[in-house]
């Protein structure tokens, strides 16, 4: 099954480095970032998991929990954490799912149904499609999906920026332009009439009839 934005994120139970979790229950009332990597003890993945460890506080500020996943066993994740700390200087304190039967990878459409049901003998290349990010909201709906090639490490600052936009636009009838960041002007959505725009946002600028900009509303 292919997943799309606004679909309900599939729920699952899984073993993690912090014990068994039921995903929706673990998410609770906040946001969650589920991010996968092709294989433990590989170079790009080592830098990615360390970068996420360094950003955990930034995600927490946004009420977003983070959880990593690969088809490697939990014991492998535990051994790998030392390397991640040595290389990046960051301790991994978020849970890592050991998806050894590929159940979650298949549920999230990272691997095809015919990928088998064991991590045994799988090479990093076999898991090439497993470098994905899913941002999930408190309503358990998928807000963002991203998949990168095996050879390209992800930019997790972009995930933080996207969460800022997702949370702002969930509250106000605005959208955020290209490269927007906190504090920049925002776009008033088409659903808001000009009269309503004045009432909601005070003042705004009409760049084109379909592009109306205003100051970022207060959270
Ligand atoms: C890496 O993270 O460096 C990597 C992952 C899968 C295949 C090859 C390299």
UniProtKB/TrEMBL annotation:
Ranges where the Thioredoxin domain occurs: 3-168
Q: Which GO terms describe its biological process?
A: cell redox homeostasis; cellular response to stress; hydrogen peroxide catabolic process; response to oxidative stress
Any one Pfam family match given in the protein's UniProt record, by short name = AhpC-TSA
Q: Does the keyword Oxidoreductase apply?
A: yes
One annotated GO molecular function is:
thioredoxin peroxidase activity
Q: Tell me the domain of life.
A: Bacteria
**GO terms under cellular component:** cytosol
Functionally, this protein is described as follows:
Thiol-specific peroxidase that catalyzes the reduction of hydrogen peroxide and organic hydroperoxides to water and alcohols, respectively. Plays a role in cell protection against oxidative stress by detoxifying peroxides.
Stated family: Belongs to the peroxiredoxin family. Prx6 subfamily.
PANTHER family under this entry? Answer: THIOREDOXIN PEROXIDASE (PTHR10681), THIOREDOXIN-DEPENDENT PEROXIDE REDUCTASE, MITOCHONDRIAL (PTHR10681:SF128)
Q: What is this protein called?
A: Thioredoxin peroxidase
What organism is this sequence from?
A: Aquamicrobium lusatiense
């Amino acid at each position: 099954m292919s997943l799309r934005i606004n679909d309900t994120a599939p729920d699952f139970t899984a073993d993690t480095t912090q014990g068994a979790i039921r995903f929706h229950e673990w998410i609770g009332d906040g946001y969650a970032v589920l991010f996968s990597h092709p294989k433990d003890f590989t170079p790009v993945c080592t830098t990615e998991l360390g970068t996420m460890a360094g950003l955990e506080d930034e995600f927490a500020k946004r009420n977003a929990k983070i959880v990593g996943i690969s088809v490697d066993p939990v014991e492998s994740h535990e051994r790998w954490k030392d390397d991640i700390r040595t290389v990046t200087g960051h301790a991994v304190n978020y849970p890592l799912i050991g998806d050894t039967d590929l159940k979650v990878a298949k549920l999230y459409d990272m691997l095809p149904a015919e990928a088998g049901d064991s991590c045994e003998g799988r090479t990093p290349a076999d898991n090439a499609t497993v470098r994905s990010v899913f941002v999930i909201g408190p309503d358990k709906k998928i807000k963002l999906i991203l998949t990168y090639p095996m050879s390209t490490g992800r930019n997790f600052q972009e995930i933080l920026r996207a969460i800022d936009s997702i949370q702002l636009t969930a509250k106000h009838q605005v959208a955020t332009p290209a490269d927007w960041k906190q504090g920049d002007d925002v776009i008033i959505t088409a659903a808001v009439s000009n009269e309503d725009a004045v009432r909601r946002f005070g003042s705004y600028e009409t760049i084109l009839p379909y592009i109306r900009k205003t100051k970022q509303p207060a959270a």
